[in-house]
Amino acid sequence: MFCIVLFGGLKGILSITSLGVIGIILVKFMIPFIIKGYSSISVTIIFIIIIILISFILILGFTKKSFVAIVGTIIAGILAQIFTELCSITGIISKEADFLITYADMAIDFKGLYLSGVLIGVIGVVMDVSMSTTSVIFELKCQNSRVSFMRLIGSGLEVGKDIMATMVNILILAYVGSVMPLLLVFHFLKMPIGSLLNMEILVVEIIRSLCGSIGLILTIPLTSIVASIMVKNK
Can you give the pTM of this predicted structure? Predict the structure, then answer.
């Protein structure tokens, strides 16, 4: 927190405030709603929209940029649901799930919890890409008021491609890092690829990576178009 405030100044303070508000939303509202039996995925989408709006408003003031981040996140959620259904994912793959089955006196939708985790995991990256692309387009318009609409979109896409190249790697490497012990186990067991791809404990990470990456990629053109329309109207 000290480093964030030292280097970020007011923006750093607002960032910490935003993080605190997000923590309160997750602990005091989102989790209790899931425990009460509401659909995990529906609750997550609603609160993610709220989180995106709060984050952007606190850090940048009221802006329409959040619309694109919301769309990208929902796309990732839809993809997660499709892939999960196609792969017959149960969501019961961890010690935490075993603990809940044993001790939680309630019916839990583990598949919905998994989907919620995918959405929450991708939201930060989608917001970052949306913000970076939009800021570039606004700055271009500020520097040259006569720049054309198509040129703005093209510039946004070019910048987005560079961001995409690193962000996709970040997503994949983050998920690979979380399952390193598992990868070592697979290596020593010398299991064939076909068997590995039929193990839910590995497939869920692949689906998580795919959904995050595709949601991220689709956010770039959406951001470029919406931001160009916004700056053109302005």
Answer: 0.73
